[in-house]
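In this section we walk through a basic example: taking a raw amino acid sequence and producing a predicted 3D structure, encoded as discrete structure tokens. The instruction is simple. Fold the sequence below.
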Amino acid sequence: MKRILIILFVGLIAGVLDLIPLLFVETPLFNKLSIIVFWLVASFIISSTKIYKNSIVNGLILSILLMLPTALAVSATNPKDFIPMMFMAIFLGPLVGYATGKLFNKNNS
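The resulting token sequence is shown next.
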């Protein structure tokens, strides 16, 4: 239970970091909640799935794979949102991988 709470805390931090750029534009509440939920789920999946030995690269790969379908769906109505969404996955995914890897003694090299 403690492990899950720590993972969710890491996801919450990533979600809040992802929300920072949205403070400067008007965004619906459900979009903001969706970002938080995405990072809560992504942090759990990143900490539980090992595609690559290095936890930073693992976080990068998994965050891109998880964000891609959502970014493609959103870009159908808002094409300019694709790049920022993928950038945040590329930026925050490795951080989540590193944090969960460090916290649970996975190999970070």
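Looking at the output, two observations stand out. The mean pLDDT is 92. The chain is about 75% helix and 0% strand. In the next section we compare this with other chains.
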